[in-house]
Amino acid sequence: MAATPLIRTEQLAKHYRLGNGEGGAVQALRGVSLEIPRGAFVAVMGPSGSGKSTFMNLLGCLDLPSAGRYWLDGEEVSRLSDDSLSVLRNRRIGFVFQHFNLLPRTSALDNVALPLLYRGMRAEERHARAAQRLRQVGLAERMDHHPAQLSGGQQQRVAIARALVGDPALVLADEPTGALDSRTGIEIMTLLQQLNREGISVVLVTHEHDIAAYADRIIHFRDGQVVSDSVNARRDAAADFAALAATA
Amino acid sequence: MNFLATVAIALKALRTNKMRSALTMLGIIIGVAAVIVMIAVGGGARAQVEAQIKSLGANLMMVFSASPTFTGARSAAGTTHTVSEDDAYAIARELPEYVAGAAPSLRGSGQVVAGNSNWSTAFYGVTPDYFEVREWSIADGRFFEQAEINGAAKVAIIGQTVATNLFGDVSPIDQTIRIRTVPLTVIGLLASKGQSPGGADLDDVILLPISTARNRVLGATTLAKSRSVGSIQIKLRDGVDGKEAEEKVRELLRQRHRLQPGQDDDFTLRNMTEILQTREESSRVMALLLASVASVSLLVGGIGIMNIMLVSVTERTREIGLRRAVGARARDILQQFLIEAITLSLIGGLAGVLLGMGGAELIAVLAGWPIELSLTAILLAVSFAAAIGIFFGYYPARKAARMSPIEALRHE
User: Are residues B349 and B261 part of one domain?
Assistant: First the structure.
């Protein structure tokens, strides 16, 4: 098991055809090869247009590469059908988005249980698992609340619970603190660090160095390529949050 | 993804926009209601015509004595007697390939007395053929025998209405009635026939052997001077072309009456079944008109559903992206939106059925038209509504299913 990394890419590339019919193409990703081991906490950084979003979409099995190969948890996914990709996302990946993407007028519990619906799981079991995850993110008291009745931080916690409910191998967080104030952002990072300590692998996209500092490894993208990939001594988000609370 | 969960999602989505959902359903509601009313009214008209054909006897053609024209003024058909009993026998004898039976009848009317009850009614002098031609059966007692016809026996067969009025609940068989002082023994009671197409009571009748009617009851009047009769009722064979049979009968009668080419017929031919069928035809045209209105309404309703589903898909692009991201397959999305469209049209369809049933009842009460609601019609209308949901919901659902998850998630 230790031999297979969680993520392995080999010369991963993606180009988009331009809509002008001239056959021109945009090289969004130009051959990225890297490995991410199980249990990692990686931050992906880079300016817009650097290819980091394209890379994340490929990691998240939302898109297929134009060239190169990608193994997730030992399984090559670069040639899978659309349906197989859906199943893979459902079973192996949890998504956290900048704008939470919770279903409106739907309880926190039902929002968290959503991925399990596509496994054909019975309602009782869906709800039991969702409730357990909501307790894990500290929202045991808010299960019946609709997104509109929750704060931004609480909504992101619901989203994190939803990402975890299917027991994924990997959590992909795309600017998870982008829509939150810095204090709430640190709170969310505390939660992600805590989950990481419990064994969940996290790949996080951010353009904030402060947020990237909570990761163990920082990968920089520019012009569709990795320009730096370095180990980082992670800051402890919980300590930062405590310090912030003390000054307040 | 299981079906019930999908239906629950669909219902929730429709509840979220109650007003919009209700307005979207309106087209389907009106369309289905119109279909239900149409089928109810059309079915009622057909049932009525069928009942009338049954009351007359199927494939019935009638020959009346027509008024001669030489007097200048024409009198009503059947009042003079140019058609004879022998014409009837000739028709039966000469045209066996067209005619199953030809029954002459002689009409009279008057007061009927039995004990201390009396009743004013019509009586007909008939032959045994009459019962077969009119498809009339006996509820009690027996038909005439040929000997009774030949011998002008003093016997009568009476209808239900007459029996009730003269004898009440007592069996009329073997009782004596008197018409114009002629005593007659009741030997049979006719089975009930209900109403004629014109609304007359067909059971208010007394049948006598034709000879008895002519020689004994009508004997004193001028009507009886020949073997002439008021009408001949002809039963055509099954599958015979009515028009062709009519021509044959006309030809035969003109020949027997020695009419020259160019001379008017001295009789009138009426094909009762055709008359009724014409009436049914006109009610069918009405139904067809209503059907086209209904189908236009259903079409518009379907387009309304497609329109609102397209709006809904666009509005919920991010939701679609999210569902795809957490593991919904394209076909799960397709199913979700398709079921939503079908739910819309089915609820609309059911509401339309209720409205249509109410409307049909209202027509029955207010306009007095007969209606006939069938379960088949209701099931047909509801499945048609569902089909519309599938047909018009498919395009928006496919659009939703084909969205790229990334684009959908990025949608503002």
Answer: no
